[in-house]
Automatic annotation (TrEMBL), chain A:
It comes from Olleya namhaensis. PROSITE patterns: TONB_DEPENDENT_REC_3. Residues 166-585 form the TonB-dependent receptor-like beta-barrel domain. GO terms for biological process: siderophore transmembrane transport. It holds the Pfam family Plug. InterPro entries: Beta-barrel_TonB, Beta-barrel_TonB_sf, Plug_dom, Plug_dom_sf, TonB-dep_rcpt-like. This is Iron complex outermembrane recepter protein.
From TrEMBL, chain B:
Residues 1-24 form the signal peptide. It comes from Olleya namhaensis. Keywords: Signal. It comes from the Bacteria. InterPro entries: Haem_d1_sf, WD40/YVTN_repeat-like_dom_sf. This is 40-residue YVTN family beta-propeller repeat-containing protein. PROSITE patterns: PROKAR_LIPOPROTEIN.
Length: 611, 350
């Protein structure tokens, strides 16, 4: 159906060159199907790693595990399923932005996303965009951004998907995805439930993971209605409710638990008139948590922020080659908690985005943003990117940008200690990408440099801990991707692999940042034969420092993980898939946070049913 | 030449004889065995980061010899001490190591040999003290509540535990006779000390006056004194449960903390400086007896003690790497400068 639309559109626009037409039509389709269109329209000069739903449907639903196995992002995970924070290109946890259908959903309270609280099964694809993107994606898009996307398709079908997973430590995950659509209306309803006893035995020890159980429920509803080809209304919503007991490092610790609830709602109107694409978006996000420092007591600390976003986005195509796109947005956050008295923050922002395809093989894009707020001194943000196709096989990209991470509600308003004089963390960065595309092999190498100043750190003063703009960090390194496909007979072999070498140097101490490995690599070798598919996955995470003076006494050793998976599709209509995975097959004993041991060999089985 | 050799032999022989004689002489008056490798010297307690791995206890012997990580050297197979090691307190033979994660590890005071771990009736424990065969440990309990703070009572014959509910964000603790006294709410608005009669377990709060939050406590000649962050040095009368007298520290010295009393001299700190006055003085000099250089803007004076005319200072650097500790004379002369473990927060003397 999708192909038909592209073909039809190609015919319609047959006056322009074929390649150009295809690009435009894909973008036209994206406008209809996706909310995060900027990921296509203004991300031509940076690397985007795409994780399709076939990868998402295998394995456990935690975003942290999906990305740890398939990208060069490093994760600091407080034990399996526990709080997990990323380091992308050597940056801190607040310097990776998580984007849900185009909207930044990092916590307003602590500035980061806990990657163990995102259930990936509800999304149709997940993209990993490397490098700065604060103009488009706001605070925290410094190391890069993670994009959780839902598609709204109008293809006259009813389909249902049920996925049931059962694995070690009594881990259960059930997911339902329903799709109903005509050529005007699209309804997509998703539900996923996850629970685990998470009581694994430590490798080479008689101890086990205590107080680690967790569960979560996620619901998604995504609707679209086309009044006609030029007027479309879309609604996206996502609701997460979860409880985790925080696993203990020592049996003598007081067991604690954490409940959090997030809701995200987005209403979007798209109008297409001549060269104009007009979008009006209203988003309402809520986040809240309750932390029980002792599970025996009914006493907790809590906090929450509600966020309202209004956005008007007007994209104009000037001729065939120039896109001008001003965006006006207004954000209001209202926060409150045990340590934050009710406070409101208003930010108004204006973006101007510009793209020109100068020739068929050369384009450049410029993005700028200025905010007005009295909560922090907001810098002027910008990016400039160039893309040049030197030949069919070789493309060079260059991108430079200024990005920020704004002080969080906790940083500004925590009682006592919140510091109203904080400046945003700012980053200047530059990257040079080389992409080589051959018939069945593509390869890319990107060098990056990132200079981050005014980094915020909480430090104890004479009476209380306070956040201070103190650190200056330079991160630089090289990322490489290699993907290859090989067919022999009805057999298909695929290789997807990533490697990153990252220096992240604190300029005062002349030392590598803690919890940033120099090396990380992932590789997946997949095999397909008719209804059978299998893979072998290898993840290598280099040694990390845990002490700011790089004292090697407390380093965490490098670790590697090897995972195996196999599945088989049954049924006349190929609508049932049965699969099994064996993770950490060599029963390697590893930690990702000092003192917190991860599981040894463990399994997962799944049954995916389409009807 | 022969003569010379003979003299040399005699000299060497007599040297041996004399040495062994003097050794024998040394041994004879002591009829008791040495108590252990850590009998004479002091411990530096390094709090560690948010894990059970980076904490450590350093021992410095009387002769200056240093032993790192005493607990793990002596007890390689014992349970870890916990997370955020807060305090060590002693009875005659045992040392009790308090971990903020909710345990008290008991070891032999002189050999550091592991005895047991207590983990019942403890929730965010802070400091402890021993009175008459029982240990009393302050607990913050849940940080979300000001009413759940309690005292753990540990029977040191069988390590059984019980609780005395007090509230008030209990922090430091000291003992006089059969009473224990706690400072309350080091960082906040509470302005009292609590007195617990260990015989009846009755609790009496003594108000120090608005704005006077006590943050440290010392006992000298059975009299208890507290210091507030607002610059008040107060003597507490435990018979009438009132403030017996107050010395006002000049307002130019801000953020006063770390009260210690050694040999009738009172010591306290403000930022990177140590100040002193004598018990009985009614005024305090604005001139510090020493100011040390800290590379850490915020981990200054993280640990502090004065013992037998030596001032001990712990500097926590950035809390994510090794700190430092220093010995100074009471006249302000630097005696030694040393690398500590992660966040040195206290000095304890054998």
């Amino acid at each position: 159906m999708k192909k038909t639309i592209i073909l039809l559109l190609a015919v319609c626009f047959s006056v322009v060159s074929f390649a150009q037409t295809q690009l435009d039509s894909i973008q036209y389709l994206d406008v209809i199907e996706l909310s995060d269109i900027k990921l296509k329209a203004f991300t031509n000069t940076q690397t985007v790693l795409k994780l399709s739903d076939s990868i998402i449907k295998k394995g456990n639903p935690l975003l942290t595990h999906l990305l740890n196995n398939n990208s060069t992002i490093y994760f600091k995970e407080n034990g399996f399923g526990m709080v997990s924070s990323p380091s992308f290109r050597g940056t801190t946890a607040q310097q990776t932005a998580v984007i849900w259908n185009g909207i930044n959903i990092n916590s307003q309270l602590n500035g980061q996303t806990d990657f163990s609280t995102v259930n990936t099964k509800l999304f149709d694809n997940i993209d990993v965009r490397s490098g700065g993107g604060s103009v488009l994606y706001g605070s925290g898009a410094i190391g890069g951004s993670i994009h959780l996307n839902n598609k709204i398709a109008y293809n006259n079908t009813d389909s249902h998907y049920v996925g049931v997973n059962y694995g070690s430590f009594n881990t259960i995950n059930s997911t339902y995805k329903g799709h109903f659509s005509t050529d005007k209306l699209s309804i997509n309803a998703n539900v996923s439930y996850l629970k685990s006893d998470n009581d694994y035995d430590y490798v080479d020890s008689n101890k086990s993971n205590l107080n680690g159980e967790f569960y979560s429920n996620t619901i998604g509803l995504n609707l679209g209605y086309k009044f006609n080809d030029n007027n479309i209304i879309k609604a996206y919503s996502n609701f997460y409710d979860g409880q985790r007991h925080f696993s203990l490092q020592l049996p003598t610790e007081t067991p604690s638990k954490y409940k959090n609830r997030d809701s995200r709602n987005l209403l979007e109107y798209v109008g297409l008139f001549g060269g104009f694409t007009s979008k009006l978006k209203v988003a309402y996000l809520t986040e809240s948590y309750k932390y029980f420092s002792n599970i025996e007591r009914d006493v907790y600390t809590d906090g929450g922020v509600n966020t309202l976003i209004l956005k008007y986005d007007l994209s104009y195509k000037l001729g065939d080659n120039i896109t001008i796109n001003p965006v006006l947005d207004y954000t209001q956050n209202t926060g409150e908690g045990s340590s934050i008295s009710k406070v409101k923050r208003n930010v108004t922002g204006f973006n101007l985005l510009f793209k020109q395809e100068v020739t068929s093989n050369f384009l450049y894009e410029i993005t700028t943003r200025q905010e007005i707020t009295d909560n922090y001194k907001s810098p002027f943000l910008y990016s400039l990117g160039l893309k040049y196709d030197i030949s069919d096989a070789y493309t060079v990209t260059l991108n430079g940008s200024k990005n920020y991470r704004v002080p969080t509600f906790n940083d500004l308003y925590w009682q006592s200690g919140g510091n109203l004089d904080l400046k945003p963390e700012t980053s200047y960065q530059l990257e040079l990408g080389n992409t080589f595309t051959f018939k069945t092999v593509d390869f890319s190498v990107t060098g990056f440099y990132n200079d981050i100043t005014d980094m915020i750190r909480w430090l104890p003063t004479t009476t209380v801990w306070r956040p201070i703009n103190t650190d200056h960090v330079k991160t630089y390194g090289v990322e490489a991707q290699l993907n290859a496909t090989h067919y022999f007979g009805k057999n298909q072999l695929t290789l997807t692999s990533n490697y990153a070498y990252t220096i992240s140097e604190d300029q005062q101490r002349n030392a590598q940042l803690i919890y940033v490995p120099y090396h990380k690599a992932t590789a997946t070798l997949g095999y397909n034969y008719k209804r059978l598919s299998a893979y072998y996955q290898y993840v290598f995470v280099g040694e990390v420092f845990t002490q700011s003076d790089n004292n090697p006494k407390y380093n965490i050793d490098a670790y590697y993980l090897s995972n195996l998976g196999i599945d088989y599709t049954l049924g006349k209509k190929k609508n049932i898939t049965v699969g099994a995975q064996l993770n950490n097959i060599f029963n390697h004993n590893y930690q990702s946070v000092l003192g917190r041991f991860m599981p040894g060999t463990h399994f997962n089985t799944y049954l995916n049913f389409n009807f | 030449m022969k003569q010379f050799k003979k003299i040399l032999f005699l000299a060497v022989a007599s040297a041996f004889l004399l040495t062994s004689c003097s050794n024998d002489d040394d041994m004879i008056p002591f009829d008791s065995e040495p108590l252990g490798a850590y009998e004479d010297g002091y411990f530096v307690l390094n709090e560690g980061g948010g894990n059970s791995v980076t904490n450590s206890i350093i021992f410095i012997g009387e002769d200056g010899t240093r032993t790192d990580d005493v607990f793990r050297i002596e007890n390689p197979d014992a349970e870890e001490m916990g997370i955020y090691i807060q305090n060590i307190f002693f009875d005659d033979t045992r040392a009790f190591i308090v971990a903020g994660s909710g345990s008290v590890t008991v070891v032999n005071r002189y050999t550091f040999e592991y005895i047991t771990t207590i983990s019942t009736d403890l929730e965010s424990p802070r400091y402890g003290v021993v009175v008459d065969g029982k240990a009393y440990v302050t607990n913050n309990a849940s940080f979300a509540s000001v009413t759940d703070d309690f005292l753990t009572v540990i029977d040191l014959t069988n390590y059984s535990t019980s609780q005395v509910l007090i509230g008030n964000y209990l922090d430091r603790i000291a003992a006089v006779g059969d009473k224990v006294i706690t400072t309350n709410n080091q960082y906040g608005s509470e302005h009292s000390v609590s007195v617990v009669d260990t015989n009846t377990l009755t609790v009496t709060d003594i108000d120090l006056g608005a704005g006077n939050t006590s943050n440290s406590i010392a006992v000298s000649d059975d009299v208890v004194y507290v210091l507030t962050g607002s610059g008040k040095f107060m003597e507490i009368d435990l018979d009438s449960n009132t403030v017996a007298s107050t010395v006002d520290i000049p307002a130019t010295i801000s953020g006063t903390k770390n009260l210690n009393i050694d040999d009738d001299a009172v010591y306290f700190t403000s930022e990177a400086s140590v100040y002193s006055f004598n018990l009985g003085d009614t005024t305090v000099s604005e001139t510090p007896i020493l100011t040390y250089n800290s590379t850490s803007a915020y981990g200054v004076m993280y640990g502090f003690a004065v013992n037998d005319d030596v001032i001990y200072i712990g500097d926590a650097a950035d809390f994510a790497s090794n700190g430092s500790f220093y010995e100074y004379s009471t006249s302000g002369a630097l005696l030694s400068s040393n690398i500590a473990g992660s966040a040195p927060n206290g000095f304890y003397f054998n």
